[in-house]
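seq as requested:
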Amino acid sequence: AAAGATVVSSKEAFAADVVLKVRPPDAAAEAPLFKEGARLLSFLWPAQNPELVKALAAKRMTVLGMDCVPRTLSRAQTFDALSSMVRPLFLLCFSLLALSLQNALNV
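struct tokens:
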């Protein structure tokens, strides 16, 4: 495909180098599907999901938990995914960050 998106199976999607996911991955069902060393951008809530954190660490993944971005710094407000006023910007930032990661990885 010259441009655009391709619909793939869940198994193929989780095997990508960079994965964007809104809800935290399921530690038992989805974490094993990730590629070793992949990058994940998602909500995680690590304190509530210690098994997920262990599973992602075992895969040696680089993870950006969108819920872990500080809400008090003015520079971080564009990443504040928990604020109703910022949700559209969150999606844009999420997409731009994913593109930056792809470019950095030459994927």
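The chain has a mean pLDDT of 81.
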